[in-house]
Amino acid sequence: MSGQAASRSVVGADDSAPADWDALCVAAPGGHVLQSRAWAEHRAAQGWQPLFVRFADGRAALVLTRRQPPLPGFAAYAPRGPISAGDGALAVAERAIALADWLAGRGARVLAVDPELDADAGYAGALRRRGFLEIDEIQAARHRMIVALPPGATEADLLGHMTKSARQRIRGAEAAGTNVDDAAGAGLLPELMRMLGQAAEAKHFGVGQTGALMRWWERALAAGHARLLVARHDEAVIGGLLVYDHGGRFSTAYSADDRASRERLPGTMHLLRWRLLQLALARGDAWADLGGVDVPGARREPLPDEPTYGLYQHKRSLGAAFTPSAAAHEVMLRPWAQRLTLLAGVARRLSPRGRVGGGHD
Question: Distance between CA 43 and CA 66 in Å, rounded?
């Protein structure tokens, strides 16, 4: 092991979060809310065992582990980690490799990592040499739609990079009396869930277990890792935007509008995202993430005949650029044990009991 690689080695892990955990893994450059103490607590309530891992270079990573008796060993996942913490992509790869080596010595079958990084050939190559393989995304999206906020930029500059129709929709929503506020607390989360459910039904996608999702939103807001922007018209909630606040940036997590109000009150989502950009600009952020538009299974810019193309156009109209990001990767640490696990999973799905009672977190 080279001296540089040795500096990324794992030096220890705790079962509970140290006091400085969120400063290391959420507030740091490239930090992510899915590396937070709050996410660890949320997943622990669903049966995962968090490990709060430290590296020799002072960095850290949340690793979630899960045993599936009577199968040997355990599965491990570093959600949106290890973070960059301001270091280069190769340093992140070295930490992922160090995690794999450390977990292999403790009986892990498999490790998945998916840090939020710009696509980087050196990062992918380093992981490949250790035996990591690219996998489809564990999270909803890989790539991001980014709005750059260069030093000295003004609101007029941002508006100038939008399309004429986007500016008209923003002004039209304001003129119609739609207001956006930064909702305090979790009281309006059911409204966001209601609108998200409408979107899911109309566009034929799933939102998972809504109760668990609501509990996560509540945790994230309580921990200060998220903000809820709410659009109202005559006191009625007509749109919502839940954003993560981490690593010196805002990242769109969930958004939806009231579909019954769209024709009467167009421009709601344009106005919500414009308010987000105003917040990021006022805070001095370098960029804002308007979220993904990936085509599942393809992970690229959508084409005109694909379901996410309209969302892609919407975000581009606000000045966002499609930004390719690093893929999720997985390494088999005990291949024979992982093959048994996969075969057992197939058997459960094919059995009558599995089809009736199966499910996932």
Answer: 10
Among 180, 262, 266, CA closest to 229:
180
Provide the whole-model pTM. Answer: 0.90
Where do the domains of the chain lie, and which CATH numbers do they carry? 3-139+326-357 (3.40.630.30), 144-323 (3.40.630.30)
Question: Three-state DSSP class for 101?
Answer: helix
Neighbours of 231 (CB within 10 A): 25
Q: Answer positive or negative: Cα dihedral of 301, 306, 312, 313.
A: positive
What is the spatial distance between Cα 354 and Cα 225, in angstroms, rounded to a whole number?
Answer: 37
State the CB neighbour count (10 A cutoff) for residue 36: 27
Distance CA 267, CA 257 (A): 10
- Selection from 242, 107, 118, 99 nearest residue 182 by Cα: 242
Buried b (16+ CB within 10 A) or exposed e, 43-74: beeeebebbbbbbebebbbbbbbeeeeebebb
Q: What is the pLDDT along the chain (361 residues), one digit of tens a residue?
A: 555 566 789 999 999 999 999 999 999 999 999 999 999 999 999 999 999 999 999 999 999 999 988 778 999 999 999 999 999 999 999 999 999 999 999 999 999 999 999 999 999 999 999 999 999 999 989 999 999 999 999 999 999 999 999 999 999 999 999 999 998 778 999 999 999 999 888 877 777 789 999 999 999 999 999 999 999 999 899 999 999 999 999 999 999 999 999 999 999 999 999 999 999 999 999 999 999 998 877 789 999 999 899 999 999 999 999 999 999 999 999 976 656 656 655 545 554 443 322 222 3
Burial of 169 (0-12, 13-18, 19+ CB in 10 A): buried
